[in-house]
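Backbone-to-sequence.
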């Protein structure tokens, strides 16, 4: 058998071609053969092989540089979350083989699952599935990694009723496919999962809503125990609305979207998604009028589309007879030298304290008293604040539309009479699934938006955006998400079709990230692997007033 060489932290080993990554780590002494590892031991759950994320049962075919991935690090936590979803799906087939469990959306620190038949789920059934999962963990069942022929995989999926997975596999049209497997149960291999169920001991399964269950996982702030559950009913309501909408259109998964695209229905699909956005924004404007609000606060995480949403909402308010003007909290930034420092000692521009909160308070107070105010304008290149020469002033029909990541922070809103405030939380809440058992990440969707916009508007490389993304999401977790339930309404800015459009812009940018870029390269390869499943949708289908144009360009609202 031909030999290959591996480099593990500058130690070099020779082993047979087609040996597993586990075999390589065993040579280094990082893994003991046949030992059952436990979660709290922080075991190795995967590897970076020449910069790409792989599972421990993946085989090595050429000289490689290996780096272990431990469960407590960010990539390890991703593998763990993916693995417990596999555990739940398999356990459900053991308890209720006649029903088909489908992954839904993320909800706080968990994933929502429901059955394809959309029937009621009681706590007794959830307990039975939980007990089955606990037994699988206790028994330490191997999760095999195999390559099947495309025809064999399609036959297995058809027998099990995995229509969404089967449809996606058909759209890929590959002669062979990699799968993770226990017995006759298979899942397509999109991302690595652990090699044995014994590791998967920390999670919580609970009944949620009338028709589903929530699979919770440990969060990054405390990886060794489960946190107290915090419900998010607004978020769940939005996802359920869009789930219903997906059923109406017949597009709830990527395979179904690919089918619409390839059969010539892409343009109409785009139009219907845009029409839904228009209806939702118009309905929010109606509620603002009903309440008699004088200030609308619009908040959301990075790349949620706050700017375009605020402008489109202003248009709807004009149609109702109001005279809105927009205020961006980004114009209240202090210079970075005045910002608080994050854990890495860098300016934390996601923190509320990075803004001139006193000036915000003063401007809001003056405007509500009917006084004229010259609003600030912050230049992100020079870090200099100037003031508009033309003041704004509140009148009888005037409405302030204030947008920014901190717009729902109580420190901003608490000094204002709540009768005159309407609060909107906006985020790109992707509800399209990859297939029956794998979801399209909401965070990944926003990241793709951000990469495209950063390159187009700032000339920023994809690796630079990828390298700063952890800091952005950490700031969102600390400063934005805790305020989302303060909103009166939650608006989903995701357009179901947008992954197809974004792929045509972002694939070349991600492909340009070199192997020497470390973490950015690892993320870029994962995203490219995901985008390989997506049929492209022409950007020309996207209307000029679309929220998506904020990212891909040629928007009616660009100046």
């Amino acid at each position: 058998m031909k030999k290959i060489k591996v480099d593990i932290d500058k130690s070099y080993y020779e082993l047979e071609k087609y040996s597993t990554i586990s075999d390589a780590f065993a040579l280094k002494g990082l893994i003991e053969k046949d030992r059952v590892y436990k979660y709290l031991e922080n075991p190795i759950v995967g590897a970076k092989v020449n910069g790409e994320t792989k599972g421990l049962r993946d085989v090595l075919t050429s000289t490689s540089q290996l780096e272990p991935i431990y469960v407590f690090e960010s990539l390890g936590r991703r593998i763990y979350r993916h693995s417990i979803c596999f555990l739940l799906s398999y356990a459900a087939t053991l308890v209720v083989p006649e029903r088909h469990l489908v992954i839904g959306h993320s909800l706080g620190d968990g994933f929502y699952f429901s059955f394809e038949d959309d029937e009621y789920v009681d706590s007794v059934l959830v307990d039975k599935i939980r007990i089955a999962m606990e037994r699988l963990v206790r028994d330490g069942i191997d999760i095999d990694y195999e390559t099947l022929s495309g025809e064999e995989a399609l036959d297995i999926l058809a027998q099990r009723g995995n229509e969404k997975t089967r449809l996606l596999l058909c759209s890929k049209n590959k002669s062979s496919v990699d799968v993770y497997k226990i017995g006759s149960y298979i899942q397509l291999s999109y991302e690595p999962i652990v090699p044995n169920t014994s590791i998967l001991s920390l999670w919580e399964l609970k009944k949620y809503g009338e028709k589903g269950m929530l699979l919770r996982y440990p969060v990054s702030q405390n990886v060794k125990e489960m946190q107290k559950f915090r419900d998010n009913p607004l978020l769940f309501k939005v996802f359920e609305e869009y789930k219903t909408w997906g059923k109406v259109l017949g597009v709830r998964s990527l395979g179904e979207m690919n089918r619409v695209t390839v059969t010539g229905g892409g343009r109409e699909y785009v139009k219907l998604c845009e029409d839904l956005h228009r209806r939702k924004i118009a309905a929010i404007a109606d509620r603002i009028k009903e309440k008699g609000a004088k200030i609308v606060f619009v908040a959301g995480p990075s790349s949620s589309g706050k700017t375009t949403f605020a402008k489109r909402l202003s248009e709807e308010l004009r149609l109702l007879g109001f005279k809105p003007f927009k205020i961006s909290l980004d114009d209240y930034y202090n210079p970075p030298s005045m910002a608080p420092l994050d854990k890495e000692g860098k300016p934390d521009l996601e923190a509320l304290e990075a803004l001139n909160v006193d000036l915000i308070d003063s401007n809001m107070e003056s405007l509500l008293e009917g006084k004229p105010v010259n609003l600030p304008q912050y230049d992100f290149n020079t870090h200099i604040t100037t003031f508009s020469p033309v003041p704004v002033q509140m009148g009888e029909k005037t409405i302030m539309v204030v947008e920014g990541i901190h717009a729902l922070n109580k420190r901003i809103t608490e000094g204002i009479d709540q009768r005159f405030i309407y609060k909107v939380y906006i985020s790109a809440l992707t509800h399209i699934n990859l297939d029956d058992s794998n979801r399209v990440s909401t965070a990944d969707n926003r990241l793709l938006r951000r990469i495209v916009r950063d390159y187009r508007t700032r000339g920023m490389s994809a690796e630079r955006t990828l390298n700063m993304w952890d800091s952005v999401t950490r700031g969102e977790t600390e400063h934005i998400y805790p305020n989302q339930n303060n909103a009166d309404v939650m608006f989903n800015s995701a357009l179901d079709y947008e992954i197809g459009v974004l792929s045509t812009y972002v694939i070349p940018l991600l492909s340009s990230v070199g192997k020497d870029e470390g973490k950015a390269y690892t993320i870029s390869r994962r995203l490219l692997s995901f985008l390989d499943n997506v049929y492209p949708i022409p950007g020309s289908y996207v209307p000029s007033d679309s929220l998506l144009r904020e990212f891909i360009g040629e928007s009616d609202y660009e100046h």
